[in-house]
Amino acid sequence: MQILGASTPLVPAIISSFFGGSARSASRIIPYLLLAVIGCILLTISAKIQIPFYPVPMTMQTLVVLLIGMSYGPNLAVFTLSLYLFQGALGIPVFASGAGVAYLVGPTGGFLAGFVISAYVLGCLASRGWGKTWQNTALAMLIGISIIFLAGISWLSQFIGLQAAIINGFLPFIYADFLKLLIATLVMPTAWLAANRMLNNLN
């Protein structure tokens, strides 16, 4: 049996399959809250760990944002990212460096805002059935990365100018984000296949 919801994002589809399509929404609140907390933890870990890469060290935070958007769906993804940013605004050290409201409105704040927008857009695409083939997953991830950079560079340019923002906030990260796109393109369709097999075995 195929996982419930041909146009339902991966995580909501799995939850619906376990709780039943007609289950009350209240019965899913705890799993969704738990998933949001797990998402925040993954975002924090991915922001803190740096992987040696050329020309600058790479974090995996963008990859986690993309995967949360595609697998959680728009509502849960935005809630998760908003909870993450709220923690940072409170001064909890969840970002790569620094915390607090000043950090959110600082030079890199546009990238953080781009995370939320990107996750929402990818969640909407997932709700239209994207993420099950490598072709539309790759396109979705490219859209998601583009949104993050567009928001980030637009905001950063207000501090250092557009040319400097492109040189410092985009060019050094091209290769790393292309690698993240490839990883995400492999992960999402594979996760769908694994979920379908798991539910088929349970049935």
Distinctive features:
203 residues, mainly alpha, Arp2/3 complex 21 kDa subunit ARPC3, 9 helices, 71% helix, 0% strand
Write the layout of secondary structure elements.
Elements: H1 10-19, H2 29-48, H3 61-72, H4 74-89, H5 101-104, H6 109-126, H7 134-160, H8 162-169, H9 174-202
Helix pairs in contact: 2-3, 2-4, 3-4, 3-6, 3-9, 4-6, 6-7, 7-8, 7-9
Would you kindly provide a written description of the structure presented here, covering whatever features stand out?
By secondary structure, this protein is an all-alpha fold. The protein has one domain: Arp2/3 complex 21 kDa subunit ARPC3, CATH 1.10.1760.20. The protein is built from nine helices and no strands. α6 runs antiparallel to α7. The protein is globular, with a radius of gyration of 17 Å.
